[in-house]
Design a protein that fits this description.
Layout lengths: L1 E7 L8 E5 L2 E4 L4 H15 L8 E9 L16 H14 L9 E10 L6 E8 L3
Amino acid sequence: MISKFAVFGVPAPQGSKRHVGNGRMIEASKFLPAWRKAIETECQSLFEEPMDGALEVELWFYLPRPSSVSRDYPTVMPDLDKLVRSVGDGLTQGGAIADDARIVDLHAYKRYSVDGWTGVHIKITQIKD
């Protein structure tokens, strides 16, 4: 089984924390809750039950290009691994996959948007055991 879909929005990283006092840590990205909600909402509209078993996931992130940037690749924050983490948890919470621990093959790419569309294209493939 293969599922392909896209989530519109500005991808936000998950995993960076900042200290707010009294030993409390919070996510550094204030955009993470909205991004995760967008992923979860899209998944809930597409999946009746979560994909399970060994999964291959391909993620293409498209980020806004700042006007001051002339290079082709986004070699700056956010970190690709932290973008992946936010999507993995969103796929699980949204019911697309049973658990992000099921992902055994992962391919992730980070690019600047060329047409103004920002977000992530997601392809999930169930691997036959």
